[in-house]
Amino acid sequence: MKFICEMVILSLSVIIIQPSIIFSRELGSPNHIKTATFYTKKFVLEPGKITRKNFFDVKFPRGHIGIKNLRAELVDEHGNSIPLYEAYLHHYFIFRYFENITMSQYANKSQPAYGKYFRRNDGVCQGYVNSISWGLGGDARKTSVELPDPFRVEVGTHPENVPKEYDEEKWFINILAIDTRGTEDKKGCSQCRCDLYNVKSKDLENTTSVDGKSLFSSDYKGGIFCCEKKSQCKLQKGYKKEQKRNVTLKYTISWVEWDQHQVPLKFYILDVTDQVTYNGSKPIHNCAVEYSITPKKTNEEQYYIKKTNVPMEKGGNVIYTTAHIHSGIVNATLYGEDGRILCEIKAISGTGKEAGNEEGYAVGASGCYPKPGSMKIKDGEILTIEFVHENKYTTGLMGHFYVYLAEELLKSF
Fold first, then answer.
1. I need a labelling partner for 319 at 20 to 30 A (CA). Which of 229, 262, 357, 368 fits?
2. Which of 2-6, 64-68, 142-146 has the lowest mean pLDDT?
3. How many CB atoms lie within 10 A of CB 313?
4. The whole model's pTM is what?
5. How many CA atoms lie within 13 A of 404 on its CB side?
């Protein structure tokens, strides 16, 4: 579970930049949508190097509110968007947690999460795997997570399953960025291919993956465990690597004050790596988070298909669905138990050089907005997740469906 620990064990940082708040359009009620832009504390990127950052207690709208949208991207110290071929944002993950102020004063560099209780999303993966509230990566600029009115992610309340002594809601951001300037193989570096980094097989000898398997015995070829803090991707000969740059994660949030006009949503992450087993009738989920592809040897096979079946203990009305994808993924489909298509996602590929349209990269994914009440997942229904890829050697892939469900609808629907 080294990956999970990595999410909550690094340096304790506090964000001090004040938000700029812009008031925008009205809803049917007198409740205005508010929008604020925030920035994490600056951090440094260097050519070929991996940067992992953890920020506790980041700036976030306070009070009992409903989140409508959250967008994020990597920018330089002047606020300019950074293209993926210079700095690849592998992921940003935003976590919700509750803090016991008395206990947390004893937190230190070796135990920064002491006194903090992380509240996971409603998804099905084991433990704290895929437990984020929001998160994307290189696909962030063109993947929408905007929720239709009047549906919101409700925050600012104390969940029943969080111990009462953890009484202060806060937010945590985890970032993995790869500076690919001057590297021999930009795409390979962004895929965390082990043979391009200063990582040897023996370095993985005592390391286990998210699902508990030994990386050494599984002949691990690439992924997050080869993109550790001290990892260095191969640079072109003669490239001057002393070109540091200051960057920050810019994130913009839209929200409303909570009232009777808002409908709360449940947020599920469904992972195509989930290998479900059963203890009697109880499903045991085993999400590996990432996977790699070894291409099929026949020229007839144009695509590589990865799929799995995932039972949903609790269903609801489908309000919005999208996916977190990596380059090489062509499309993805979520099926109901009877074979009906709940959502089909298309990868958005870049065609230029500007940030958000980088040629050769997956810069976003489409989404599905069914008419509220028209599509429902039943309690206990077994869903099928399918991701279709280019038939090329690729490491460190992630295939995650993001599903927003409403347990109840307003009478107007």
1. 357
2. 2-6
3. 11
4. 0.90
5. 27
